[in-house]
Amino acid sequence: EYTGWVVSVGPEVEWPLPRALVGVGWHGGHCLVCKICRSGNFTMCEKVNITGVHVDGGYQEYALAHWTGVIELPKRFDPLRDAPLLGAAVGLFRALQKETDARP
């Protein structure tokens, strides 16, 4: 998991905006196209981008992240202290999804 400020976005990306504080968890994005994504189970995407495995992690000055793997963080979020929470959020969501009708 890592945090940082958006420097720029691709031509078709409408969110997040440059200068936004964002976080990227272990799940670095999904395709939105495969059958699994269309069913709402994006963490099992056929083309998943696992941070540090399929795409570079955050141990660098700049990183690339797919917008589907980014979350905008509140101003009170401390990037150094709170970055590990990004992984915990996915685990919590998956648990809720298994027990309820929660959807992304």
What is the compact description of this entry?
With 104 residues, this protein is α+β, with helices and mostly antiparallel strands. It has helices spanning 35-38, 79-82, 85-99, and strands at residues 2-5, 21-24, 70-72.
Description:
The protein is an alpha+beta fold and 104 residues long. The chain has three helices and three strands, in the order E-E-H-E-H-H. It has helices at 35-38, 79-82, 85-99; strands spanning 2-5, 21-24, 70-72. Strands 1-2-3 form a three-stranded antiparallel β-sheet, with no helix packed on it. The radius of gyration is 14 Å and the shape is globular. The protein starts with a strand and ends in a 5-residue tail after the last helix. The mean pLDDT is 83.
State the main characteristics:
single chain, alpha+beta, 104 residues, three-stranded antiparallel beta sheet
Reconstruct the topology from this structure.
Layout: E1 2-5, E2 21-24, H1 35-38, E3 70-72, H2 79-82, H3 85-99
Antiparallel strand pairs: 1-2, 2-3
